[in-house]
């Protein structure tokens, strides 16, 4: 799946609709007009607004609101699986991601903590999804 950035900042109306808190991000490190490969996406249950996981312009894995993009290629990855994450209170999300993330729910946390094996696996996943999107 590929998307093209239409905006890099949320409007106040979009922030209000999505239920953003004052400390939530307002702008994202994306370039208007640039195409990005979607690595996965999620929708927090009880909140509004789908978010795409992409590699941003700083080379970081980032979750960016869907409303900042247009979909240029809607083909879903054959490696994606849907799963539910969260407790039965707050912070529940429906997630569509590479199946490795459902096998290891701590993988992203380990990646962000720079655990060597997690970094290698996530980089492999990113490469795999980019290759698939380009074919």
Description:
- 27% of the residues lie in helices and 29% in strands.
- It has 135 residues and is α+β, with helices and mostly antiparallel strands.
- The chain has one domain (2-134).
Describe the protein's topology:
Layout: E1 2-5, H1 12-18, E2 35-37, E3 40-44, E4 51-55, E5 61-65, E6 69-73, E7 80-85, E8 93-98, H2 99-103, H3 107-112, H4 116-134
Antiparallel strand pairs: 1-2, 1-6, 3-4, 3-8, 4-5, 7-8
Total domain modules: 1
Percentage of residues in DSSP E strands:
25-35%
Provide a count of the helices: 4
- Helix percentage range: 25-40%
| Mean pLDDT figure | 89
Strand order of the largest sheet: 5-4-3-8-7
Main pleated-sheet profile: 5 strands, antiparallel
What is the gyration radius calculated from CA atoms?
15 Å
Poorly predicted regions are none
Structural class: alpha+beta
**Shape, principal axes of CA atoms:** globular
How many strands?
8
Alpha-carbon distance between the termini?
11 Å
Helix-strand sequence: EHEEEEEEEHHH
Summarize the structure.
The protein is 27% helix and 29% strand. With 135 residues, the protein is an alpha+beta fold.
Name some characteristics of this structure:
29% strand, 8 strands, single chain, five-stranded antiparallel beta sheet, 135 residues
């Amino acid at each position: 799946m590929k998307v093209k950035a239409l905006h890099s900042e949320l409007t106040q109306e979009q922030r209000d609709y999505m239920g953003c808190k004052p400390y939530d991000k307002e702008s994202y490190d994306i370039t208007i007009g640039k195409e990005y490969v979607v690595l996965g996406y999620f929708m927090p249950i009880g909140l509004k607004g789908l978010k795409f996981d992409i590699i941003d312009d700083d080379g970081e894995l980032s979750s960016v609101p869907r409303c900042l993009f247009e979909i240029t290629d809607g083909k879903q990855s054959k490696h994606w699986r849907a799963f539910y994450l969260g407790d039965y209170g707050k912070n529940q999300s429906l997630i569509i991601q590479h199946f490795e993330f459902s096998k290891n729910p701590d993988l992203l946390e380990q990646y962000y903590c720079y655990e060597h094996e997690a970094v290698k696996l996530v980089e492999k996943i990113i490469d795999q999804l980019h290759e698939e999107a380009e074919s």
